[in-house]
Backbone:
């Protein structure tokens, strides 16, 4: 009942904000009038960014994989440097609404625009399936209903506020969602830190437990918690980290956030604030993992099989937790406890006996993470279709009203369709999310980096690069997942390395083999080197001091 | 609009790039570098129990990234100021951009 009230209260808050900010014009609908201050934009990026995979899955993944799970921590944070140094300010200066619009105008090609729009839809759609099935698990567990029914409730909520709030509604809703999810994540970590180490600063205190767990592992004769590369090769670790970093810089729904800031300077600061807010959760996840594992090892393992706490029952019923006294000695050993990484964050408040309020708060935070990311993804899908394909290519004469209604209907249809697939997801949540990152690494990252920094890159190059990158990444994912094909032990989640390499090469070779882009386009690209006030024209640089936009 | 020496504008661009190269070198060392050297680094222990490679993956790299981003934002502002870039003008100039279609 307490959990239920907390979730209802937070939902009422999000929907209230969305209604209050109900967008009226298309410019508001897509990019919130470019007036969001960097600190709040940073929080909104944080909420957009931290999905069900980060909130629900990551600590569990680290707990089970040990050091190898840290590829997610470094990958999902390190990408912000690529994004903020190489792309965000330049894309902001170019000033378009969406990523496909940048690609279409920069390369002056409708073909490139449509391919980019389709890539955006594929990436965002793949990603949103994971979010919807995540929200289904949380709602299902909480209300003790079937996860499929939970997914449907999530679909209705997302369709509602993404379609009626637009980006503006979502920006402020996401600030609220960030605050809810970070509080929900930190409270259990801090409580566990107080319980186990008598310190209110988990980040400083959990190192001691990591060391202790290494000793416990040695006594049990299993590999130490922190031993590197026990679950995959070093190359897989590096490839996964690279894929997650470049995917971060190439995800359309994250990049579009940087179109909401006022200037290149604001884009720089938004990137810095975003990583600070994101880092707060990412620095806490390994602590969460260490505390959970320590409690399970020392308090649960070793107890009599007939004397297990009540929380074990409800999780065993979900099939995500197995406790079997396989050697029949009446005592639960560590090796007899099998826990799914998806339930670690949700179950830990119960394991640590933190009370019903914290349990409800964590559920509300998990919902905030899943819904906020799904909202941003839906905006990316709808703008690709309604703006880039429908308006820019198909019906350039469409009125603003028609475009807005196409945008809203595409959100509703995409959400319903993604929800349908999420009822029977094609893989684990983290796996689906990793595929979306690999696809962004293989397609948009090379196209955008070359588009911004190399004026010689042309339409033929980018079209070939996008198609080859997409094909190589998809091909490697399928070959590694279903065919058992690997290079240096790199599995499907690290596929982006090969996609990106192929796309960069193709883009460069094809661009050089075909005519250079027009003088005007090359000048526009060189212009991105300078701040807004400096304008590059005919080989000369002009300084705009009176604010006039004409030369 | 006033014409400025292209050499000055290029100096601005090169200066910003030089800093970015330094940031990326640090970025590479704290993440990829520490992963490549994970085995030898694991014998060093800090902060009451953390093996060093684990500490870098869980905290060291992330904190370095955050610091680098804030340094970049601050240094960027300082370079802009040195070259007489006025943020008020930038806001005015970018306000109308992209609504022109």
Residues:
């Amino acid at each position: 009942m307490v959990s239920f009230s907390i979730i209802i209260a937070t939902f009422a808050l999000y929907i209230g904000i969305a209604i209050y900010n109900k967008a009226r014009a298309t410019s508001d609908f897509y990019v919130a009038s470019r007036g969001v201050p960097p600190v709040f934009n940073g929080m909104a990026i944080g909420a957009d960014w931290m999905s069900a995979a980060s909130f629900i899955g990551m600590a569990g993944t680290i707990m089970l994989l040990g050091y190898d799970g840290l590829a997610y921590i470094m990958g999902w944070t390190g990408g912000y440097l690529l994004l903020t140094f190489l792309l965000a300010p330049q894309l902001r200066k170019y000033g378009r609404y969406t990523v496909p619009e940048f690609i279409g105008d920069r390369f002056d090609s409708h073909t490139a625009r449509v391919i980019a729009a389709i890539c955006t839809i594929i990436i965002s759609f793949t990603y949103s399936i994971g979010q919807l099935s995540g929200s289904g698990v949380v709602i299902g567990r909480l209300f003790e209903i079937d996860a499929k029914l939970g997914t449907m409730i999530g679909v209705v909520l997302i369709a509602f506020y993404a379609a009626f709030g637009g980006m503006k509604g979502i920006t402020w809703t996401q600030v609220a969602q960030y605050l809810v999810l970070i509080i929900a994540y930190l409270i259990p970590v801090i409580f566990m830190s107080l319980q186990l180490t008598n310190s209110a600063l988990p980040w400083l205190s959990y190192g001691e437990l990591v060391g202790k767990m290494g000793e416990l592992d040695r006594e049990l004769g299993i590999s130490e918690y922190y031993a590197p590369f026990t679950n995959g090769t070093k190359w897989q670790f590096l490839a996964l980290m690279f894929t997650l970093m470049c995917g971060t810089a190439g995800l359309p729904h994250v990049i579009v956030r940087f179109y909401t800031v006022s200037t290149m300077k604001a884009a720089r600061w938004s990137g810095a604030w975003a990583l600070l807010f994101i880092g707060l959760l990412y620095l806490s996840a390994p602590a969460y993992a260490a505390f959970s594992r320590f409690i399970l090892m020392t308090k649960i393992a070793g107890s009599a099989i007939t004397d297990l706490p009540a929380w074990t029952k409800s999780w065993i019923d979900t099939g995500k937790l197995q406790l079997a006294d396989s050697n029949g000695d009446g005592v639960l050993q560590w090796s007899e406890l099998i826990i799914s990484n998806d339930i670690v964050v949700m179950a830990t408040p119960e394991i640590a006996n933190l009370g019903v309020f914290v349990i409800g708060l964590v559920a509300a935070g998990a919902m905030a993470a899943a819904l906020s990311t799904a909202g941003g993804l839906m905006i990316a899908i709808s703008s690709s279709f309604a703006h880039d394909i429908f308006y820019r290519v198909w019906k350039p004469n469409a009125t603003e009203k028609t475009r807005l209604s196409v945008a809203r209907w595409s959100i509703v249809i995409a959400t319903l369709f993604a929800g349908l697939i999420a009822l029977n997801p094609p893989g684990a949540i983290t796996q689906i999310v990793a595929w979306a990152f690999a696809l962004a690494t293989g397609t948009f990252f090379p196209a955008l980096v070359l588009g911004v920094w190399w004026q010689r890159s042309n339409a033929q190059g980018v079209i070939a690069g996008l198609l080859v990158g997409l094909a190589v990444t998809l091909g490697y994912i399928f070959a590694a997942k279903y065919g058992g094909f690997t290079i240096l032990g790199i599995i499907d989640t690290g596929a982006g390395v090969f996609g990106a390499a192929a796309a960069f090469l193709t883009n460069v070779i094809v661009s050089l083999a075909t005519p250079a882009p027009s003088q005007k386009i090359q000048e526009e690209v060189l212009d991105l080197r300078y701040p807004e006030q400096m304008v590059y024209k005919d080989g000369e640089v002009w300084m705009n001091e009176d604010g006039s936009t004409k030369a | 609009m006033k014409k400025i020496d292209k050499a000055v504008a290029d100096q601005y661009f090169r200066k910003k790039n030089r800093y970015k190269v330094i940031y990326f070198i640090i970025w590479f060392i704290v993440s990829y570098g520490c992963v490549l050297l994970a085995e030898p680094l694991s014998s060093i222990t800090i902060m009451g129990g953390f093996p060093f490679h684990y500490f870098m993956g869980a905290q060291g790299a992330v904190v370095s990234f955050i610091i680098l981003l804030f340094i970049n934002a601050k240094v960027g502002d300082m370079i802009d100021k040195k070259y007489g870039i006025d943020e008020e003008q930038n806001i005015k100039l970018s306000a109308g951009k992209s609504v022109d279609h």
In short: Chain B touches chain A through 62 residues (CB under 8 Å).
